[in-house]
Amino acid sequence: xxxxxxxxxxxxxxxxxxxxxxxxxxxxxxxxxxxxxxxMPGLTAGVVRFGEELVEAGYTVVLPHLFGPxxxxxxxxxxxxxxxxICISREFTKLGRGVTxxxxxxxxxxxxxxxxELGGPGVGALGMCFTGGFALAMMxxxxxxAPVVCQPSTPFVPGAKRGADLNLSPAxxxxxxxxxxxxxxxxxxxxxxxxxxxxRFDTLTSLIGxxxxxxxxxxxxxxxxxxxxxxxxxxxxxxxxxxxxxAPGAG
Length: 251
Known about the structure:
hydrolase activity, single chain, hydrolase, Dienelactn_hydro, AB_hydrolase_fold, Dienelactone hydrolase family protein
């Protein structure tokens, strides 16, 4: 059975770099909304399984499909096939510092529409690896009240400056700083030994201080809630979403 058979497929269209852009969206569940942005190489079976955990925990989960294969188990072969396409896509930043990924605007409108439909304090957003910083970019819109950053890995290293960069423009970083000062916390999760996130957690701590909840896992691994799934990581996400999204008045 296809891992997405029980999910409802639709499409979402919004502006990216001045052009109307459409991506498929898969949805399931009831309760407050959560947007889960998949990692490289695509909307893998592991990402869908994590989405199912959130559904079972009482959330309306939306899985946008931005690139790569759908519903397959993770494979290095799929990474090798997807990576060159990502590198030439204008929807995503890969190497540039101090810029926000263009697809962030598309994701913000998706979160905004979900919030308008479901009500409550707002929606959760979770990005991972290549899309790890996307949840921060979504936080620029007030509809995202529970951003989760899992092993953020762009802009790609090497280079100390790239490894410290949050994939945000200066203007968007200022909004993140302001929203954090107003009470919007950010959850970050990584394996402490993983080199791909660079020093971005240190940058986040410098940017928003105690509003950044930092979870660094022991052991070897990269994908904290999927391929090298950690129960500590999943529990931290569930606790964070529960606190932020099940507040009085939540939909």
